[in-house]
Amino acid sequence: MSRRNIGQAGKILSDSGYQGIMKMYSQAQTPRKSSKLKPLTL
Prior knowledge:
two-stranded parallel ribbon; little secondary structure; elongated
């Protein structure tokens, strides 16, 4: 992942391949796994 100055961007949405992004940016969100009973959510 390239390091860019995205601190002022607010929330960051990324795919589940970036597992360590939460450590670098506290505003980052990755999708959660879905199941038969619950749909995919953020």
